[in-house]
Design goal:
four-stranded antiparallel beta sheet; alpha+beta; 2 domains; nine-stranded mixed beta sheet; 412 residues; single chain
Length: 412
Amino acid sequence: MSIFELLRQAFTNVRTNLLRSVLTMLIIAFGIMALVGILTSIDSTIYSLSDSFAGMGANSFEIEPKTNEVQGRRFGRRQKIADPVSVKQAQSFKERYEFPAKVSITYPGSRSAQVKFETKKTDPNVEISGIDENYLDVKGYDLSAGRNFTKHEIASGNFKAIITDGIVKKLFRGNPEKALEQSVIVNGHRFRVIGVLKSKGSAMNFSGDRSVLIPFENARINFSSPNLNIPIIVKVLRPDAMQDAESAAIGLFRNIRMLKIKDENNFEIQKSDALVDELKDNTTKLRMSAVVIGMITLLGAAIGLMNIMLVSVTERTREIGIIKALGAKRSNIMFQFLTEAIIICQLGGMVGIILGILVGNIITLFMGGSFLIPWVWITLGVITCLIVGIASGMYPAIKASKLDPVEALRYE
């Protein structure tokens, strides 16, 4: 019996018992959907975050207060964060850093501001940031309309603003040119729009499309708060000079923080690729959990499939006797039943993979990620279904192949 004949006969038998075959396929499909869906949403989120951090560029790093884990009360662990970077320290670093690089400092204003224009207004989830003249270049932002701040505007704290694509869509019907030179009210302060940023998308709870950028000094005066940390971002002009740039930054900032030779650094250099690598490491357990959930569901599906195949062997005992009487070998009978089990698994797997991709990407889109086709997890789903089909169909196939043709023909 050729492979094509085996497949034709297997498909015929699956159609004959369509209802129970479909129910078994659905159980397998839900197991694969859980497996592929969760893994897809995890990968999509990571890739989205990688793109967001990559906006800073591979040749950039940030100076942050150092975070240490210390022993807490009752044997617990807690984080101890060093003193924040002050405005004076950040400005001093920018002025004194002589390495071939661009330095940007940012004043975090508010994360819950509301922007108004005439009768329209945004939700109170807009982020206000005070920036300098290097911010757009260092962060990799492009303008769709208008211009950047001048050094004079940064230093004098003018009431001018650069807004993002999301705010333009909300207040100006998505027309960047219409937004230019218009006055918007941000938490009671009136700003004139001089620029609009191109959309960079969002990732998880961070959104670069719901931001208002204002001059650094303006943010420091009108949105000040105590113990605020001022982010310092350095973009090295030559990527091959990263290590030297970091060493120069550490030496200068130790001096600015007035650390003695014996003192450890109370700050750290944070690179975007390191953050993504750490995130990938932290999601390993989550991936393993997804695999376990999928495998538990598939175990139930495998048991159900084996039960269906055993019932099929019993129902087709006389048919098996006739086929053997006509000269079919044991291997032909065994491969026929094994092929049926594999086909049911693979059909269920294909449905599960499609549902998993859709569900995983829908979840990711809600979280602000981007669409992803997970070829690795698709391959894993196909291989898993093949293994489940072989494991579930092997025993019924062997049982069918061992039936005595005489006894089988007498079966009623």
